[in-house]
Design brief:
By secondary structure, this protein is of the alpha+beta class. It is 34% helix and 19% strand. The chain has two domains: 42 residues; 88 residues, no CATH class. The protein is built from four helices and five strands. The longest helix has 32 residues. The N and C termini lie far apart (83 Å).
């Protein structure tokens, strides 16, 4: 029995290899995500000095005709007064402005929700009521 126990002591169990492999993989993915978020934050801060000039466009009248894009695009959250962190990174490389000098079109984004209905369950309406929401489009006649 002792010789078998000694032979097993030098070997690493396969589950340990799986755990080590997963830990290394997750560590690398975490580092990649951290670097991507750091680059994104640095890129978004480039637009900070220009936000007020972008928001001044809200006072312009709505254009007639089909929408169009001239040059590169930056999306600005009107309510939070900064580059929209949700839509801007998802723009394609060909469409997204990498810096303020390349901005040709400003997309003004306004987020909101309104309750469109409700769900009830278990007979206890006050405790189990959850809202069902739909996104609303900004009112074109709404002026700041």
């Amino acid at each position: 029995m002792r010789c078998c126990a000694g032979a097993q002591a030098g070997k690493v169990h396969p589950i340990v290899w799986v755990i080590l492999t997963l830990a290394v993989f997750l560590g690398v993915r975490f580092a990649q995500s951290f670097m991507a978020f750091s680059r994104q934050d640095a890129q978004l801060t480039l637009f900070k000095p220009h936000i007020e000039s972008y928001l001044a466009l809200t006072s312009l009248p709505a254009a007639d005709g089909a929408p169009y894009i001239r040059g590169r695009l930056v999306t600005v959250d009107v309510d939070n007064r900064l580059v929209d962190y949700w839509t801007y990174p998802k723009l394609s490389e060909e469409l997204r402005a990498a810096d303020p000098a390349r901005v040709g079109t400003v997309g003004l984004v306004s987020w909101g929700k309104k309750q469109a209905g409700g769900l009830c369950g278990g007979g206890n309406r006050s405790a189990d009521r959850r809202g069902v929401y739909q996104h609303r489009r900004p009112d074109p006649d709404r002026r700041r």
